Amino acid sequence: MKTNQKREKVEMKVKVGQHVPLTIKRLGINGEGVGYFKKQVVFVPGALPNEEVIAEITNVKHKFAEGRVKRIRKMSDDRVKAPCPIYEKCGGCQLQHLSYEGQLKAKRDIVVQAFERHGNVRNLEKKLEQTIGMEEPWKYRNKAQFQVGLLKGKVIAGLYGANSHRLININECIVQRPETTKVINNVKQILQDLKISIYDERKRKGLVRTIVTRIGVSTGEVQLVLITSKEELPKKDLLIQEVKKRLPEVKSIMQNVNGQKTSLIFGDKTFTLDGKETIEEVLGDLSFDLSARAFFQLNPTQTVKLYDEVKKEAGLTGKEKIVDAYCGVGTIGLWLADEAGEIRGMDVIEDSIVDANKNAKAKGYDNAHYVVGKAEYWMPKWVKEGWKPDVVVVDPPRTGCDEKLLKTILNVKPKKVVYVSCNPSTLAKDVKILTKLYKVERIQPVDMFPQTAHVESVTTLSLK
């Protein structure tokens, strides 16, 4: 009997196609409105906090339902008209219909929700700052990765539509730097003109899969990467010639080969087709060489604000030993190097480590060293050798820190951990583990991706 009672409690009280009234309480982690019908949660993309809507149920899961807005009975004061003509089709942005001030409040609230759900932080409201926003929250992304396809014989490039496998052609994107979309539009035309084979994902035939462009915002240098299914690139010389003629700002033309059936963009092999292997970017007074696969923050303007927060929270005196885990091309470590004793960083991508060491050498930082591998391998090794970090900075992917790394931090016991996060849910889960030995001092959200539901943050933890 008890088992049946439990099952009854989680039985959904809504059906697909049903229209239900909802008051939207908050935004979820993906930017969707969250409301309740008879105490059961309903996620409604496009609905905003404090709105009263009629939603049509589109999907029913075990513990929640999904719906779409049929009618808004009471509209939020923060609702605005999205300026992008393909906003609702594309799915690349989730919050263009919310005022920027409203976005900053919502992003702080997304962090609050994550810690309330997963964490055990005392006095959370006092420790969680207001979100640091952007003065001009448009045209900020320095990198575009557009899938390539054919539509009625014409080469198109863009993103897959929200919850679909339909490729949306994007000629202009108002969150991308215009230079990146200019290059993609020209390359689409060059591929069309030269009749170069385009990859068909369903048939798994064809050649060009993805066009990746990145600009060094401070230098104007652009890198073009063509992701192909095979190494052989017919009409390669003609292609290079046309790119150089039409796009003189492109200083690096690369090819990456990915023949796998995968959602990952890059494969393992990368070749220089023409020009330099890297482009240069400058942050503050630091210059970085960026290779095709190297990770680098997508919003340079906000990156400076983010890294300044890391530097402030690290509280450096010039003597500290710092580990920069998930270091990429060394951006965070080198940002701290002038006020630290020694920086040691690591990353599993070898290209990034090559770039990081080059970047340190170019700047004259002989106190910064980078190695290939995981922090959970290197940190215990260094401790055994008598080198113990005072501060560990982590900037993991969306999946959060590796469990082994968290255990390593708890074993090594640095005085301070500065956690740079791009996913509040995994941040809160990881912090919960670290609070066995650490206390949370401060959480600072930073808006790195205006118009989207993403929120980055810098969390400072000190040894109890």
TrEMBL record:
Residues 13-71 form the TRAM domain. CDD domains: AdoMet_MTases. Keywords: Methyltransferase, S-adenosyl-L-methionine, Transferase. InterPro entries: MeTrfase_TrmA_AS, MeTrfase_TrmA_CS, NA-bd_OB-fold, SAM-dependent_MTases_sf, TRAM_dom, U5_MeTrfase_fam. Pfam families: TRAM, tRNA_U5-meth_tr. The active site is at residue 422. Belongs to the class I-like SAM-binding methyltransferase superfamily. RNA M5U methyltransferase family. NCBIfam families: rumA. This is 23S rRNA (Uracil1939-C5)-methyltransferase. It comes from Priestia endophytica DSM 13796.
